[in-house]
Amino acid sequence: MKSGFISIVGRPNVGKSTLINELVNHKVAITSNKVGTTRNNILGIYHEKDIQMIFVDTPGIGKADSKLGEVLNTKAYAALDNDLVLFVIDIASGFGKTDEKILEKLKQNEKDVILVLNKVDKINNMELIKEIDKLKDLHDFLEIVPISSLKGKNVDTLRNVIKKYLKDDVMYFDEDTITNVTERFMSSEIIREKVLMLTRQEVPHAVTVVIEKMEYKKNVVNIMALIVIDRNNLKGIIIGKQGALLKQIGSLAREELEIFFDKKVYLELFVKTVENWRNKTSSLIELGISEIED
Fold first, then answer.
1. Among the residues of 151-213, which ranges form H helices?
2. Which of 49, 128, 173, 178 has the fewest CB atoms within 10 Å distance of its CB?
3. Is 140 within 8 Å of 6 (Cβ atoms)?
4. DSSP character for 50?
5. Residue 49 buriedness (CB in 10 A; 0-12 / 13-18 / 19+)
6. Are 228 and 286 in contact (CB under 8 A)?
7. 176 is a domain residue
8. With left for phi above 0 and alpha for psi between -120 and 50, is residue 278 left, alpha or beta?
């Protein structure tokens, strides 16, 4: 038996959440091109005969110019204590200043690091070879693996590389466990993903989703959810003209929730500001960056 915990770190929008979904072969993390999409350290567990890889998806590490940014960075850096780190960079946009800062932190922690060059489908082979030649001297990486998480290219290769560096001989989770998040948490994340997909850039940091009610019946799941925002002027954006955008968010979320539960889903969505929500003592950050339920 070989096993281990593997952290996936990098700056925002390099494809970490898409990668963990590909590595696990299940959707365990929502994806979006908006900064701040991932807010918790989510586990995705890959099982193979005598192999168990526990991947930790982390928030993107970026400029901490807000309370939210500080919390996200703290959560991401906390994951560096794991056995092995996948340092993911967007090879199409190049190795930037934020990447340099993350690498310095990895050097300080003296952890084993595999450099993952994502989005190779956006550059040609000659450009890739030149980039690898430059990057290989920055650190004593265990391996450098070019992939495209969106296309699924070389993800199998990356798994095989990781297997070589697993150090534990413990089966940490049973074979049916693929993530540490609850159905309630995943439901809220699926709804939030659709909000991010359909709204403008200012919305992501200002919204979270709270499941108020989840009722299971034989062939149906009834869900009532609140889209909680921090400013009243966002309410009109999310609801849309004559409620059209909110209906679209609900329709897309319901379709994915029915696949997730493999049941019919009845979904009710409401939009409220955090001040008007029943839990008036909680800030939006406390709601959106809460710990994953046990």
1. 155-163, 183-198
2. 49
3. no
4. T
5. exposed
6. no
7. no
8. alpha
Please give the pLDDT value at position 38.
55
Shared domain check, 235 and 205 = yes
Q: Residue with structure tokens 């989770």?
A: 173
CATH code, 21 = 3.40.50.300
The C-alpha angle with vertex 42 and arms to 149 and 74, in degrees rounded to 5, equals 105
pLDDT band at 232 (very low <50, low <70, confident <90, very high): confident
Taking the C-alpha atoms of residue 252 and residue 244, their distance in angstroms, rounded to an integer, is 12
- Structural domain count, the chain: 2
Complete DSSP assignment for 264-286: EEEEEEEEEETTTSS-TT--HHH
Cα–Cα distance between 45 and 178 in angstroms, integer? 5
Predicted TM-score (pTM) of the model is: 0.81
Burial of 10 (0-12, 13-18, 19+ CB in 10 A): buried
Q: Are residue 66 and residue 103 in the same domain, yes or no?
A: yes
Terminal CA-to-CA distance of the chain, rounded, Å? 26
124 by Cβ neighbours in 10 Å (0-12 / 13-18 / 19+) ranks as: exposed
pLDDT value of residue 36: 56
Residues 4 and 171: their CA atoms lie apart, in Å, by 9
- Please indicate, yes or no, whether residues 149 and 196 belong to a single structural domain of this protein: no
